[in-house]
Design a protein that fits this description.
- The protein is of the alpha/beta class and 168 residues long.
- The chain has one domain: 3-Layer(aba) Sandwich (Rossmann fold).
- 31% of the residues lie in helices and 21% in strands.
- It comes from Streptomyces liliifuscus.
- This is TIR domain-containing protein.
Length: 168
C-alpha cells in the first residue's frame, strides 16, 4: 500500500554538504533516529537549489512539519578577530558552521516551524547560540540524536496533524 505525503510527518534536515567521515557518521545517526520517530527526512543537496535557491528553500520548508539543523564545524575561527578596529573588537574563540544553516533557521522561524538545532562543540554562532533558544527553537547536543526534546517532537507531530487535517 502506497502512503501519501500526509501519512507521515516530514522533517527538513539541514547540514553542511561537505563533512568529515566522523561528521557523516553522526549525520547518518540523526537520519536513522528521525526515521525511527516515523518522520520522512527531507534534505536539500548542494546542487538541488536551482537558479533561485530562496524560492526552492521556501517551497520545501512550506511542505514540512519541523526542522533539524546540524551545525557541524566548517570554519575554524578560533584565531580570528570580531569587528576589528572598532570599540567592540574582540578575539573569536569558536568554530562556525555553514552560513546556509543560519538562513534556513531564519526562514523556518518566519514560517513558524518547530526548529531543533544541534552543533558540534564550540559552534555557537547565530541559531546555535544557547542564548537564542526559546519556545520555537530548541537546542540539543549534536552527539545525542535521541536528546531531542519531547516538546519539539510533539510540536512536529501536532503541525503534521493540522497539515493533514487530522482532528484531535
Amino acid at each position: 500500500m502506497k502512503t501519501s505525503e500526509t501519512d507521515v510527518a516530514r522533517v527538513f534536515l539541514g547540514a553542511p554538504s561537505i563533512l568529515t567521515p566522523d561528521q557523516q557518521t553522526k549525520l547518518e545517526e540523526w537520519v536513522s533516529w528521525l526515521e525511527w520517530q516515523s518522520f520522512q527526512v527531507i534534505r536539500l543537496g548542494r546542487d538541488s537549489h536551482g537558479e533561485n535557491p530562496w524560492h526552492t528553500l521556501t517551497q520545501l520548508l512550506a511542505q514540512v512539519d519541523g526542522v533539524v539543523l546540524l551545525g557541524f564545524r566548517q570554519l575554524d575561527a578560533r584565531h580570528s578577530v570580531w569587528r576589528p578596529e572598532t570599540k567592540e573588537e574582540a578575539l573569536s574563540s569558536s568554530w562556525w558552521t555553514s552560513p546556509w544553516l543560519q538562513l534556513e533557521a531564519g526562514m523556518s522561524v518566519a514560517l513558524a516551524l518547530p526548529v531543533i538545532v544541534a552543533a558540534e562543540a564550540d559552534v555557537k554562532e547565530g541559531a546555535f547560540n544557547p542564548e537564542v533558544w526559546n519556545g520555537q527553537v530548541k537546542g540539543v547536543e549534536l552527539s545525542t540524536p535521541g536528546a531531542a526534546t519531547d516538546e519539539w517532537l510533539d510540536a512536529v507531530r501536532e503541525r503534521h496533524d493540522r497539515r493533514a487535517g487530522v482532528s484531535g
